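Protein 1 of 2
SEQ + STRUCT:
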Amino acid sequence: MVILIDSREKSQAHIVQWLDQHRIEHETLALPSGDYSFALNPIPELDINQKQYFYNDIIIERKNSLEELSGCFAQTRERFNDEWSRCYAKRKYLLIENANYIDLVEGRYNTKYSSKSFLGSLHSFNAKYNLQVMFMPDKNYSAAYIVAVLQYYLRYLIK
């Protein structure tokens, strides 16, 4: 498995460092949607003679904070909506770093976006685009989450 990282992904050094530390192969390229997905290198023994990409099957979109996600809902909502509507992956994950759901409910973030509006937007997008939303209070565990989601999806496909 090769973890694919979108070339437009910003501030992903902690992800790359974790992947390198755990000797997990990764590659940077422009993904059609999302920030992370995976590919399989050729496996001649299984008659898989070319690299297979799974970015149309599964993607993970990462936001580094509630502040970043708030901006997507409040300032660039149309673009964010278009991004999700163009995503044809069967499985879509939204990973929100440095926060938990309680932070969102209690308005513990540094924007003027009201908690009620923020929650409404998050749950509306979740319903509309069938997202799996994951809060990751400690971003140092984000790469482990990304790898596990992608590995277990592959395992599901193989079974």
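Protein 2 of 2
SEQ + STRUCT:
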Amino acid sequence: MEWNLEESWREKLKNEMDEPYYRELVDKVQEEYENETCYPPEDKIFNALNLCPFDKVKVVIMGQDPYFNPGQAMGLSFSVPEGVQLPPSLKTLYRALGINLNGINQPSGDLTRWAEQGVLLLNTTLTVRKDKKSNSHRKYKWWCFTDAVVRALNEKREHIVFMLWGRIAQRKERFIRTDNGRHMVLKAVHPSPAVRRKGEWNGKEHFTCCNKYLEKHKIAPIDWMIVSEKLTSE
């Protein structure tokens, strides 16, 4: 099967998708999905790109690879579906935003409403094998494909904020121009449980810095707190 990819991204990445490594990647990953339990669901592999078309991207939040426990990964970095318990890394982000995690009504872990505002929630590797297999699909060269995503944004767009969290995500920095304010790069350690045990996450100010940069360039800021509002069907 061919994975569904939003039209604007397919246009920008069409040359990349003709590369031999990409065809091999697709074949190997599809074989994994046939023979192993992998995440996210196959129809969500490109969820980050599909929810955030190329010309709508304002911010890129770069993680490592998907959650590898059942029911968590949904193709958006750090996000889990509505109703799923918040994983530790997402709790770290919410604490940095000042979102209350101790009340009766827990905030949603579904970051779709960030994506719909122009936040590309992209992992460096887009698939993973189940249960404690972090980086298990990196060998299939997903990083080449996500390099191409960053390069395209760098070359064809201006005034995007790239939040690179963790050593692997920060390897993308070499593709991003920041001269004359063309783009902004914000770097921090990955918001892992280990970081939380050591104290406050050092990316806490990224959300504020991001919005100041966007506003400076007359771009609507991101409403980061929208996840704290309870979803209703009204």
